[in-house]
Amino acid sequence: MSAISDDDIQAFADRQLPADRRAAVEQALAADPALAARVRDIERQNAWLRDGLDTLLAEPSPQRLVDAARMPHRPIRAWQWLAASSVAAIATLVLGFGGGWYWRDAQLEIAGMPTTFARQAAFTHALYASDVNRPVEMWAPEEKRLVTWLSKRLDYPLHAPDLNSVGYSLVGGRLVAGNERPTALFMYENGAKQRLTLQARKQPPGTEETAFRYAVEDGIGVYYWIDDRCAYALSGQLDKAQLLAIGRLVYAQLNTPETPK
Amino acid sequence: MLTAVNGALVPPAKARVAGPPTMSVDAPLPHPDLVAAIPRLRRYARVLTGDSARADDLVQETLARGWEKRRLWAAGTDLRAWLFTIMHNVFVNQRALAARDAQNVSLDGDGEGGAAWQVPVRAPQQAHVELQEVLRELSRLPAEQREVLVLAAVEEMRYEEIAEVLSIPVGTVMSRLSRARAKLRRSMASESDPVTPLKIVR
User: Fold this and answer.
1) What is the ipTM of this complex?
2) Could you read off the pLDDT of B30-45 as tens digits, one per residue?
3) Which of A50, A109, A182 sits opposite B153 (nearest CB)?
4) Domain A114-254 CATH class label
5) What structural domains does chain B harbor?
6) CB-nearest partner of A55 from B64, B67, B131
7) DSSP readout, chain A?
8) Cβ separation A53–B96 shorter than 8 A
9) What's the pLDDT tens digit per position in A80-136?
């Protein structure tokens, strides 16, 4: 019988234990009263926390929060929103002429590969690239562990491309929430403290490959493409040509078997 | 599997695929129902800040950002997790700013939560006695542990989802959860002893 870990005990009590572990844990619980007591302890604690905190859910929501949930309070934001909407309307008109790709977008969306991938990549880039102190969860000196962790979470073997030849060195990386699936983020920085992020997400099976695509979201350029197994987005406040050049370098490295270090 | 227990918060699945292709780029997406999410946001904010006025400020900021970013929310996915992620980031940023203002405040230390926490001394109603007890016990945990404990035990989120909300590895979720539980257990055990406050523990 495999050893029962603390994680197993917690997952069992939280009803999150994978089915294939359950039998082993149940067996161990039956044999060991101390283990069984720990499970009961956690279950009691959970119930106590829920009972106590559930009373908060009954409180009526203050009007100011209801207002905030319906429309932002700050007038400037309403104005920005209007401006963004008219830009969007124009973009829709312009894109109407782009026919083919546009249709592809719709197809991708139906296939579960959201068109918002670029937008989300830009948003994520903006969120973390502007963070001076903690842009990444794990730093470059721990690259090996970082890559192992992210590969495990994505269930896909990743590696961090080497962009030193174009002046960008790896800062580190983190896991971010994607559309229904985890996304790996690698961040790079050049001498001028300009940051680039490469985000990778395993794609659902059956999605079509795409060529390089370019989008600008809130002033952030995003090059993105989908190969047979992963969707990638390279984001940064660079011009299109620079970003494309780096994008091709990343693409080339991702498609070359990694040289042993 | 997302925690779909709280039906009100889980948006109608995949409403957007029904639209014609012209919907796909920037047309109105189905609005996430932010209003329905308020009670859970307030509860989580209360746990994070420990103070109902500060909690509501945090919720307001979260809703404002959620509104701004509503196009980034993927219809059909767990709105609660998405909003908790926003709230967590706002909270962490606010804490970092506060720490910068008062330079000697530690971000990670065990004693971090204590000073800012205000749990009303008098429980206004009988029904709230339990709540006050829970809040008092939680106030003794560092914010990092409070977060994982409440997301796992009360929101019943999957560990993987918690890891995404907090941008930490699942292993970290598990170890924080374990520490939070052990600490809470000790704290509750000593609580049940009526003379605890006066006893000198060796």
Assistant:
1) 0.72
2) 456 788 889 999 999 9
3) A50
4) alpha beta
5) 7-115+139-198 (1.20.140.160)
6) B131
7) -PPPPHHHHHHHHTT---HHHHHHHHHHHHH-HHHHHHHHHHHHHHHHHHHHHHHHHTSPPPHHHHHHHHS-S-HHHHHHHHHHHHHHHHHHHHHHTTHHHHHHHHHHHHTT--TTHHHHHHHHHHHHHT-SS-S-SEEGGGHHHHHHHHHHHHTS-------GGGT-EEEEEEEEE-SSSEEEEEEEE-TT--EEEEEEEEPPTTPPPEEEEEEEETTEEEEEEE-SSEEEEEEESS-HHHHHHHHHHHHHHHTSPPPP-
8) no
9) 555 555 555 555 544 444 444 444 444 444 344 444 677 788 888 988 998 888 899
